[in-house]
Design goal:
It is built from 8 helices and 11 strands. It is of the alpha/beta class. Strands 2-1-3-4-5 form a 5-stranded parallel sheet, sandwiched between helices. The protein has a 4-stranded antiparallel sheet with strand order 6-7-8-9, covered by helices on one side. Helix 3 links the parallel strand 3 and strand 4. The chain is elongated and about 55 Å long. The two termini are 31 Å apart.
Length: 236
């Protein structure tokens, strides 16, 4: 049974989400602000966090900054704000997806299931992917670039895994969104651009002139074929 941490300062909303999530077979724990949420997360070890952005004591943005330093647990942001900049900031701080209030509970549950499938399913492909000086370990969920360990969010890890597993193949934003979210919800394609930008900042020497993740204008993204290693040298 997966544990979901619901963080929101509205008790009625927490009660409603608990009811629906428990009906779907989830174990639910709660917090009314970011500070309490950090404590609950350390004790309960949730599989996913549903996080409101606007809260007293410690807001969602502050929680994301602190939580990202100690956990790779995926986060879905709930926001009453409609500005793209607010959504993008949440993604840049480590959130995997967002849902704008008021929201459809069934859509939120679908997104939760999609993220959990991606983070919990057993890999069917080789455990270790190697390309140029990047080594990605699916089982350990680690990435090394030139011997340096790089900390990626679950969404960034899923995107890099997808691209490295098929070097030279172009993936559209919808393709990558499906790997990240499981469902291509309307208006979410832009989140892939944010994840790609964050990923490049972590693995590229010069993110503005990327060596690994190439943009194929009008189509999507691919891992540069010229940067891959001889297949005979790959493996665990």
């Amino acid at each position: 049974m997966s544990t979901i941490l619901v963080v929101d300062d509205e008790p009625a909303l927490r009660d409603m989400l608990r009811l629906y999530l428990e009906q779907e077979g989830f174990h639910v724990v709660e917090a009314g602000d970011g500070r309490r949420a950090l404590y609950v997360a350390r004790v309960e070890k949730p599989d996913l966090v549903v996080l409101d952005l606007m809260m007293p004591e410690m807001g969602g943005y502050e929680f994301l900054r602190a939580f990202a330093k100690e956990s790779r647990t995926p986060v879905i942001v709930l926001t009453a704000k409609i500005e793209d900049t607010d959504k993008i900031l949440g993604l840049e701080l480590g959130a995997d997806d967002y849902v704008t209030k008021p929201f459809n509970v069934r859509e939120l549950i679908a997104r939760i299931r999609a993220v959990l499938r991606r983070t919990q399913q057993a890999p069917l492909e080789p455990d270790v992917l190697r390309a140029a000086d990047i080594v990605l370990d699916r089982t350990g969920r680690t990435v090394r670039v030139g011997g340096r360990f790089v900390d990626l969010t679950p969404s960034e890890f899923a995107i890099l895994t997808t691209l490295m597993a098929a070097p030279g193949q172009v993936f559209s934003r919808l393709d990558l969104l499906d790997r990240v979210s499981g469902d291509a919800f309307e208006g979410s394609e832009r989140t892939i651009d944010v994840h790609i930008r964050n990923l490049r900042a972590k693995i590229e020497d010069d993110p503005r002139n990327p060596r690994y993740i190439e943009t194929v204008y009008g189509m999507g993204y691919r891992f540069a074929l010229s940067r891959t290693m001889d297949p005979s040298k790959t493996g665990a």
